[in-house]
């Protein structure tokens, strides 16, 4: 198992940090976002941790484009 920690391109709201952590840990991104909000409101550490992770986590690859469900009709 060779997992790497990247900022998510698919599950992003601000910078993809929470989405990337959620993908890495196998959690729902909403749960990770809620943890960061609680840390930010509690002692303020959530904001600092988020900013540090934003700086050090590499950006993940863009998600592949979904195939077009309605291809254009031939003229």
Structural class: mainly alpha
> What's the total count of β strands?
0
Shape: elongated
Question: Biggest sheet, open or closed, and with what strands and sense?
Answer: none
Describe the structure.
The protein is mainly α. The protein has one domain. The chain is built from three helices and no strands. It has helices at about 15-25, 30-40, 45-55. Helix 1 (about 15-25) packs across helix 2 (about 30-40) and helix 2 (about 30-40) crosses helix 3 (about 45-55). The longest helix has 14 residues, at about 30-40.
Structure summarized in a few sentences:
With 75 residues, the chain is mostly helical.
What are the salient characteristics of this protein?
mainly alpha, 75 residues
Topology, element by element:
Layout: H1 17-25, H2 29-42, H3 45-56
């Amino acid at each position: 198992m060779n997992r790497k920690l990247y900022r998510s391109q698919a599950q992003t709201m601000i910078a993809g940090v929470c989405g990337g952590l959620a993908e890495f840990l196998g959690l729902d991104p909403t749960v990770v976002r809620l943890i960061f909000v609680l840390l930010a409101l509690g002692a303020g550490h959530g904001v600092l941790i988020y900013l540090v992770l934003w700086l050090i986590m590499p950006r993940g690859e863009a998600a592949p484009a979904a195939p077009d469900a309605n291809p254009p009709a031939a003229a």
